[in-house]
Each structure stands twice: as structure tokens, then as C-alpha cells.
Amino acid sequence: MTSVAMLDRGLQARAMRGDPADVIVQLEGISKSFPGVRALGNVDLMIRAGEVHALTGENGSGKSTLSRVIAGLIQPDTGKIKIDGRECVVESPAHALDLGFVMISQELTLAPTLTVAENIFLGRLPTTRLGLVDWARLEVDAMKALARLGVHVSPYAIVSELSVELRQEVEIARALSSDARLLILDEATSSLSEAATARLLKLVRQERDAGLAILMITHRMPEIYAVASVATVLRDGRLIATVPLPETGEADLVRLMVGREISDFYGKREIPAGEKVLEARDLCTPLGILQPTSLDIRRGEIVGVAGLVGSGKSEFGMVLGGAIQGAGSVKVDGRTVRLGDPRRAIAAGIGYVPDDRKASALLLVRSVAENFSLAWVDRLSRAGILNTRLERSEVGDAIKRYRVATASAGASIATLSGGNQQKVILGRTFRRKPDVLVLSEPTRGIDVGAKSEIYRMLQDAAEDGAAVIVISSELPELLGICDRILVFFEGALLAEFSRDEATEEAIAHVAVAGSRSQPQANLSGARQ
User: Fold this and answer.
1) Taking the chain, what is the end-to-end CA distance rounded to the nearest angstrom?
2) Lateral strand order in the sheet of 213-217
3) Which CATH class is domain 262-349+434-528?
């Protein structure tokens, strides 16, 4: 018997113990198929009141599909759903809400043109005796919902004007303001900073202790072990195991997820720094979110960028990638890059991956092939005519190389899991072999197996001579893969740590307190 099988058999029985009266939702033999893909196959799941149940597995394992079944967004092909011991069909999202099932997804569902308050209470706005919206009460109730989560934003703010993190926090505030019995968190922390994640996990513990049932879908091991008491692992749409926590160690849980050991997770290599390839001087944004920033980066370096939301770290990447207007100067291999134009940035050898893949990086109504090749049009076309044979060859090779799980190259990109969508974005960028890679939250919503693959890809790119910039909210990630780490605070590049100097505590101290007390290296160029 394999070690995984022994772990499964030995721990699953303990994980399933408990009073049946506490069971809110029980799934039996749930299966679901989409054209060309079997998303779920005979999956069982039991969720109890007063328990945080982690649902985990690699991208494409079926986690989100299963949560969508519970939330009434899709119907299973076969299987039963029991609620409070009685068989039930969750007919729609509205029916799920009536049952007290509230889902928070990593894919935002807010109405962008409405205010924060209107979004929080959308569909259940308070009214006066005359049946009109009670705006005064709406403001008070919205402020209470935001204060409960520790979110500092005006209830009158228009959602489209907020950052991705604040939008996610508004989504969470909306869910928690309802009278929920079951809260489904589908990668809800993927857009949150460390501080916002900590606030949410504290609230999760409080709600758990008050008797709420919570199904938490996440790849982040620290979150799982911080709040969950049981974990169910899916792989390729099938149930692998349900195990108790913390009795099941992290290494065992990862092995269940991926079906193999992941040794040397970050895969950090010693890559000699080459010549200077990126020169940035007084880089800033007109509104002052990013203050004048200067630095040099050499070939073969992986440079991390840390900071809180609003610190300027995201804007730094966006200016380099041409996504927003900026001032100052940027040179790649000695050639000046005109700012504010993504096409010129690409032509100059800068590959930029934004943090919001659906809004900024994907054509959701197009196919996997089209989303791959849109970045290669100049190489796949001649005289404005697309070479479809070359496109099929290039896309097919990229799907294999970057291990994108899809029914076919012609499948809609919208049918892929978030992790596989990210692989398409990263793959098409890497394939151009840019001199400078600027990646904003590149592993957001990615499982541990895929993360390890992406870290290998970053190392490969650096070894091939690229300068790699990784903007990330996950400090362990930056510490694991970077040669040096830059820290932004209130728009300014405030500190830099070498690989040997960097610790989570030191970086967080600068990011939160703006202290320069930690040792600071020469910003003009890292390793000599």
C-alpha cells in the first residue's frame, strides 16, 4: 500500500467523526461533466456547523465546481445533496441564499457603477414606510458591515474606482452582512494583503466559534492550518481523502494534493548577475501615488517588490509595463522606452503580467488559442494575414509546455480554472522571451504544484538572461525566490534587502511602519 493510500485510510475515519445532528450539508456521489471535461466524479463531502472545512487540490481539481454546485450556480449530473438530513435540490443562487448559503468568490460579482453601500445590500436595500430606499439607514448599516471587517472606505465610493483588494473586501462585507448558515470562501484571500487576510481569518474564527459552517477553498497552507479542523482533497475531479487537521502535516497534505513529493519547492538557483539591462530614473505617476523611484536591475536577477495596498508597488509595475501613464525615464539595454504605451513596452522587451487577469489580461469570450496568440500576432502574421497553421503549432506546443488543462485549444478561456487561465497569461508572455519580466501577483489563486512550476519558469527565464521583477503580497514567496527585495511605503521605495538580510519581520516592519531602521543596500544595483 502506498504512503498516500495509508494516510488516506488512517486519517479519513477520524476526520469524518462527529455528531450527525451538526451536519448542515452532505453531498453524496456528486458528478459533473462539461464538454470534453469530467469536472467531478462521485465526490462526497460533509460540512458541519461550527467547523471550518478546507477544500483543496490543484487547479482544475474540481474545487470551484463543487462549491458552485452547493451555491446553486450549476446542477450536478448525478448525486444527492442533503441539507439538515433531508434531500434537497439547490435550484438557483437565490434558493441557496434562502437556505443561508453565501459564497464569496475570487472572481468579483460587484456592480461596478454602484456605491459600496448599494453593493453590500444589493437585493435587500432597507426601505421606508413608503417603500422608498432608506438612504440614512443604508449608510449606517454599510458602515457597520465595513467596520466589522476593519475596512476603511466610504460607503458612498463607487466600486469601479476602488482597488482590487478593496473590492474583494466589499464583497466579503456583503456576504458577512447576510444571515448565513454556511459561508463558502472560494479563494477569497487571493486579492488581499497579509494584513487584510489576517483580519478576515480572525473573523472566520469568530464566526466558526459562533456556530457558522465555513467551507474554505484555498491553496495557502498557512490559512488552512490557521483556521481549519478538517480538509478534503480533490484531484482530477475525484475525492482523494478527507483528513483531520492539524494531525495531517503540511507535507502529507501537499502530497495528497499533487500525488507526489514536491522537493525544493522554490527551486532557487545561484545565477550570476549579468550586465545592467533595466535602468529606471525618477519613475513616478502624475497623481503622486508613485513617488520618484530610481533603480537598476541586471540580467539573471529576480527582484521582489513588497508593500501594502496603496504603497505604490502595483503602480511601479504598471508604469514599467505601459499600463498607466508615468513620468521619468526607463531604458532597456540602453534603449529609451516611451512610457504609457503597452505596445512600445512590449517592443522594447518588457513583458508585463497584471494582477487582475480577468479585467486586464484575458479575452473571456475568446478561445484558449486566441488568448495565447494575441500576444504573438506580430510573429504569426504576414501582411496582416494570420498563419493559422503556425498558430495551431505554437499554441499546441505552449499548452503542453505550460501544462494548461483544457479540453482543446478551441475551448473558451472562460471554462478554464483560474490557475489555468494564469498559465495562459504567463505562458504567452514567457514565450516572447522578453529582456525584462514584470509580474504582478503571478501566483495568485494558483495551487502549490503549479506555483512550483511557475517558480521554475522564473528561474529558467533568469538563467536565460532576463531580469525578473516579482510584485507579490506573499512574503514567503518573495523570500523563497528573490535575490533582493524592494519595499514600498506610501508611494516611495523606502528600503531594499539582500537575500541574506531579508526576513518577514524586517520587510513587514518597513511596509507597515515605514521605518528605515533595517539595513538598506545600494538601490542602483544589487549584486556586484
Assistant:
1) 52
2) 101-105, 182-186, 213-217, 52-56, 230-235, 238-244
3) alpha beta
